[in-house]
Amino acid sequence: MKLTGAQALIKSLEQEKVEVMFGLPGGCILPVYDPLIDSSIRHILVRHEQGAGHMAEGYAHATGRPGVAMVTSGPAATNIVTPLADAYMDSIPIVVITGQVPTTAIGSDAFQECDTVGITMPVTKHNWLVTDAQDIPQIVREAFHVATTGRPGPVLIDFPKDVANQAMDWYWPDAVDLPGYKPNTKGHPKQIKEAARLINEARRPVIYAGGGILKARAAGALRELAEATGIHVVTTLMARGAFPDDHPLAMGMPGMHGNYTAITAMQQSDLLIALGSRFDDRVTGKVGAFAPDAKIIHVDIDPAELGKVRRPDVPIVGDCRQVIEELIKAVRSAQEKNERPDLSDWDRTITGWQHDFPLRYEQPEGGTLKPQYVIESLRDHTPDDTIVASGVGQHQMWTSQFWKFNHPYTWVNSGGLGTMGFAVPAAIGAKVGMPERMVWAVDGDGCFQMTAQELVTASSERIPVKIAILNNAYLGMVRQWQELFYEERYSEVYLSPDLPDYVKWAEAMGCVGFRVDNPEDVVATIEKANEIDDRPVVIDFRTDYREKVYPMVAAGSSNDDVILGPEFNEQDVVQ
Amino acid sequence: MNSTGQHHIFSVLVENKFGVLSRVAGLFSRRGFNIYSLAVSPTEDERFSRMTIVVDAADSPLEQVTKQLNKLIQVIKIAEIGPGEGVERELALVTVKAEPESRAQVTELAAIFDAKIIDVGFDAMTIQTTGTPEQLDAFTDLLRPYGILEFQRTGRVAMAKLVRQAPKLRSVKGKSA
User: Fold this and answer.
1) Active-site residue among A112, A134, A335, A449?
2) Regarding the domain with residue range A371-542, which homologous superfamily does it belong to in the CATH classification?
């Protein structure tokens, strides 16, 4: 069967069971948009290419399937570099297709030309420049394989216009041919046995669960491991939802804005069982002072993560789910031989911290609206399996802290790259992937202004996402740092609560807009928003700009120095 | 990055495709490492090329680079050849002044180093020499006083040394091994 390159590309995407793609056409990608009309693939027309990339990420976060975005060459390609970098940092499987000028014009400074493959090389797991239409099925197959296996990540296919118009003989390859790519998924049995031995000897163990748990679909295995060993679990920002927050062994989020118990339990532990986590600086604080007495078991599918920050005592390269399942068997057989270690002292210590140092804030009746109160109200008045997306900054930290994540794949956020403006498009992508679920984005006013135009996309495509803007009229996290570390010298952080008018803006974009400026109206407005299911809703919550995120470990400080915040008296703080 | 004076030699087997060199070089350059020398050519199997990369860097950041190199889809295999663990060779072409009065001395020097004169001009000649990087250094040092006009080295190629130990023989009873 003869096909054009463009037809072959669309047919290859169908072969990969792509149901939806996010994109925006333009000159060089035009030939591919023609066969798209006859395809079963739903295309969602975005308003900016960055939006297409983040939607693909949100879709992948929520469904576990690769997100697909397609844009044209030059400025469209550079606009999607941010989502690629974001997906690279957070190991999100997305496949991005960019148009390119004809092969004969490459390198000639043609209109809308840029070196897309060169530019995206450091922010993709791999990328391809197609030079022959005959290679298309093979390349598409390889691209999806690379994006979704091993440590997942973004890939890019750069597609010149003449290749799109070239004829090819259709085929579908039965296998990929990548001699240099063979991810190791099965952990070394000897190392697993050694890990089980350490687990059965530890007196103050902590499971340090990272985003790899979710990528490996290992939430069930993690829960079984925790319950089999009785070991408490911290879930990093990327792993929120990987272990239910309402579980008695859950300690919540560690790190710079983690809770006191999670931070301190890691700090004082004698064994850290790192599962799909990468010892990020936001988790460890000052690396030299991090968990000084802990032995480390580190499980990761990416060998480059083992020893990158902290040298593990037991490194295990493998898929988290497979390794945890083997580890459970090894632990059980070790438990048969020896008595299960007595962790009751450690459990009491943890419970004590949880009791003494909970997350705190105060919402005075009739007073200014506190952002944490908005999040708690949202949490308590939405279904248990609601998907929550967030941008980056204070609102992100409060959401991670105060939401109760009891199900995996309910938290969609930009962890590694910290991309402001992530929430709106990511929420749209998540809702497209999970149309039956309620999807809320908690966004900051600064973030919202970066990508809000995608709500036009959501309105026209009837994607009813709901956006809660915590509008404190500031770039809040930057303001917090200037207040704490720059002697309250506020430099370029004020945004104004009224400019833009978020309600009018929402309405102009085809959404329903609400404004809430006092605690009394919070719940009623959330409930009104929940009832709207035919268009997006935006709520402008006017929150207290003075509110800061606590606890906090200052950048570069040791995790021993947790700043608890104004709600705690000094005598409460134990050293 | 300042020179650490530590040369590390990597022998990297890669797919013989466009863009591979750029991917490999990018991993070094983004960390501020200078590639001291580089030699690339196809192997006995045309699908693959071998790169011999000499890098000037300290051990610990380099470990991360090799792990990242391994992650590149088009990198098949990496071997670091430690000091004394490999055989290294390099080729140099040197054009040196050789006026009638000094020509004999230059020719003699070339003979000592087993170098070959491959081009002769009116008052200069081009000499080809192969050897270890140290031998090449010594040769050029000795030529310098005559006046080096042009000079080019290929960068080294290296291979791991072969195993010399014979397979262990079983000890005969009654005799100590």
Assistant:
1) A112
2) Thiamin diphosphate (ThDP)-binding fold, Pyr/PP domains (3.40.50.970)
What is the pLDDT at residue A494?
A: 97
| C-alpha dihedral (A346, A348, A354, A355), degrees to nearest 10 | -160
Instruction: Quote the distance between the C-alpha of residue A17 and its chain's center.
Output: 23
Point out the residues of chain B with pLDDT beneath 50: 1-2, 175-177
Q: Is it true that domain A2-169 has CATH number 3.40.50.970?
A: yes
Question: Residue A422 in 3-state DSSP?
Answer: coil
| pLDDT for res B176 | 47
Query: In CATH, which of 3.40.50.1220, 3.10.20.520, 2.40.128.20, 3.40.1400.10 is domain A189-356?
Result: 3.40.50.1220
Q: Hey, is the C-beta of A301 within 8 angstroms of any chain B C-beta?
A: no
Distance, in Å, from the CA atom of A481 to the CA atom of A552, rounded to the nearest integer, reads 11
H runs (alpha helix) in A125-204? 136-148, 161-165, 189-201
Best interface-test mutation with B: which of A178, A305, A309, A310 has the largest number of B CBs within 10 A? A178
CA distance A467 to A456: 13
Write down the pLDDT at residue B58.
Answer: 77
Contact pairs from chain A to chain B, CB under 8 Å:
40
CA distances from A453 to A30, A44, A428 (A): 23, 14, 12
Prediction ipTM score: 0.88
- Spans in chain A with pLDDT lower than 70: 569-575
